[in-house]
Amino acid sequence: MDVINALVALTNYVLIPATAYGAQLALGALGVTLVYSILRFSNFAHGDTMAFGTGIVILFTWLFQSWGISLGPLPTALLALPFGIIVTAALLLGTDRVVYKFYRKVRAAPVILVMVSVGVMFVMNALTRFLIGVDQITFDDGERFVISARQWRDMTGLSEPLTLRSTQVITIVTALLVMVALFWFLNRTRTGKSMRAFSDNEDLALLSGINPDRVVTVTWIITGALATIAGTLYGLDKSFKAFTYFQLLLPIFAAAIVGGIGSPVGAILGGFVISFSEVGLTYAWKKVATYLIPHWEPDGLVQLLSTDYKFAVSFTILILVLIFKPTGLLKGKIV
Amino acid sequence: MKKLLLASAAISLCASASYAEDIKMGVLLGFTGPLESLAPAMAQGAEMAMKEVSDSGKLLGGDTVTPVRGDSTCVDAAAATAAAETLVTTDGVKGILGAMCSGATTAALQNVAMPNGIVMISPSATSPALSTMDDDGLFFRTAPSDARQGEVMSDELMEKGLKSVAVTYTNNDYGKGLADSFETAFKAAGGTVTISTAHEDGKGDYSAEVGSLASAGGDALVVAGYVDQGGSGVLRGALDSGAFETFVFPDGMVSQTLEDNFGSEINGSFGQLPDSEGQGMQTYLSMAEAAGYDGSSAYSGGAYDGAALMLLAMQAAESTDPSVYKDKIMEIANGPGEKIYPGELAKGLELIEAGTAIDYEGATAINLIGNGEAAGTFREIEIKDDKITTVKYR
């Protein structure tokens, strides 16, 4: 019984939250990695693109709610997602036309593009706040729980609660679908293949007749879609606040780099490595230890790091990887 | 510049118009900074008391009182010191109502008030550190120390038979101070704090924090945070994961937002906040309404009381010298004697002149304890039928 209780506690406080968080990070890291490998710069504006996309989704959600449209047990935001993606992709394409295109034309060094993206980040950040404000917004409607703590206790009679929120299930399912679709697109379609060719060797790709403008356009559209989906899932699961997406930038970049920047599989792997280390290293293992080791009641909390240091975890992993294996776990590429 | 000229012209006019002495009193509050929305109602409270005394013409045989405002900010100790310095040296104030935040108050007290021997009464500094600070008997406050709230919270838990709690606090002076004072009081009463951990405000995700709290366990979770910030995030996480069922809410959490967002899920949880009731507060609220400001704004009543206390003490000491009237403040505030409420300052002055003892109650039922700080009354609340209900005052 104690072993089961220990497993339940572990699942409730580590496995489920870390998996959902990992999926959100992975989607974010995919967007970063895509821009990095095809457009060849680190896009610092990605966090705020996520915030902007989520903001638009929320506005559409409110619109649908005022019309009385809902998805029953599922959150209305899922219905608003396609509209959010369209607006976000349009914004990214507009930004590209106005800002990035010039720097591509003059063949600016990647570091200049990075700085440009920092500027774009500030503008998008302000735009998001202007659109939807700085307050915390919860836009999750529909059924809250798949399994709630009370149901679980009634069902199993275990002393440890287990909860599974519907947003966590939605996050994981959506992330899986998006990843499968992305890989299918990159590996099986003509456009996807031309994108990969462009990423591998720009000059050769141009010589073989690939239209660079088309590749750039498709990349931004996919990036917009990934950012909006990642942001919306994060917002549904936690809550929306314009500032928090900026803070997500560090774990997202850490995920992309740990996995091997430029490698989509690496981005996904990195997302889960980061989320499990963040949650696992800052979790207080006292309860699990008490259940597992009989006759031992630890005095402390058996916690490696205080939760305050959550971001330090991704930062440390980032530094370790950059020192010892700069190409990441799966071989990425460095421009 | 034009305003300044006008103001000084007005002040000099006032001064020349009165035959008796014109007493200048400093109103040193955070007119700019993180609490700027609270400062105006506090300043108006203090100035209303000064005007009341001044208009009565009974202070020390007809002295008038002129308030002089200074900006203590809230977070900038250097600015608070400079503002206090100006009040004391340039304006020559006989007492300072202020400062606003604990940090600014400490700076103004140690750098200006103590070297110059000026009395300071803060209506809103609640840091426990001010209770034990050496102040030459010059510092008082009409706000209760956060340590008091910690004790009240501990008493409440003990009465309900909850002996082991987890604590999460917002990572700033308020949260840390409250969590520490609660932990001390609760341990002294025989309770156990399983974990006391900080949460950062303004984050999206509090599952890691909730994980540690849940692992430490306890009968209830004390959420010493802000309802518009991380406090709600931790509460949401704890409810969702089924980690805790009973919660304790200090003042930062008790608000309409809490009821609206969590009402049905936190039935049976409880909390407390500094709040006063009774005749004095009612009178003060209607006086403030007549004067055109919101008297229920936090610490506004305390500001009125602080100003009134200094002026009544001057009357009792028959002197405007801070080193003389400082000894009378506790006596005026605690009685025994005839009770004086807001709007009755003239009566208070008369009684003192006639040699009758008074007990200044004021808007906040003031009673100074220890080193000269308000004992404070706390409203105990409980969430019942999805609503915040008042259990009692203590």
TrEMBL record, chain A:
Pfam family, one: BPD_transp_2
Chain segments annotated as transmembrane: 20-39, 51-70, 76-94, 106-127, 168-186, 215-236, 305-324
Gene Ontology terms, MF aspect: L-isoleucine transmembrane transporter activity; L-leucine transmembrane transporter activity; L-phenylalanine transmembrane transporter activity; L-valine transmembrane transporter activity
Coiled coil (residue ranges): none
GO biological process: D-alanine transmembrane transport; L-alanine transport; L-isoleucine import across plasma membrane
Localisation per UniProt entry: Cell membrane
Membrane topology listed for this record: Multi-pass membrane protein
This protein's UniProt keywords: Amino-acid transport, Cell inner membrane, Cell membrane, Membrane, Transmembrane, Transmembrane helix, Transport
InterPro entries: ABC_transp_permease, BCAA_transport_permease
Family as reported in the entry's similarity comment: Belongs to the binding-protein-dependent transport system permease family. LivHM subfamily.
Protein's UniProt name: Branched-chain amino acid ABC transporter permease
From TrEMBL, chain B:
Signal peptide (UniProt feature, chain positions): 1-20
Any GO BP: amino acid transport
UniProt KW Nuclease keyword: no
Signal recorded as keyword: yes
Span of domain Leucine-binding protein: 23-322
Top-rank taxon, per record: Bacteria
Alphabetically ordered keywords of this record: Amino-acid transport, Signal, Transport
CDD domains listed in its UniProt record: PBP1_ABC_ligand_binding-like (cd06346)
Family per similarity comment: Belongs to the leucine-binding protein family.
Protein name, as recorded: ABC transporter substrate-binding protein
Organism listed in the record: Pseudooceanicola spongiae
Lineage: Bacteria, Pseudomonadati, Pseudomonadota, Alphaproteobacteria, Rhodobacterales
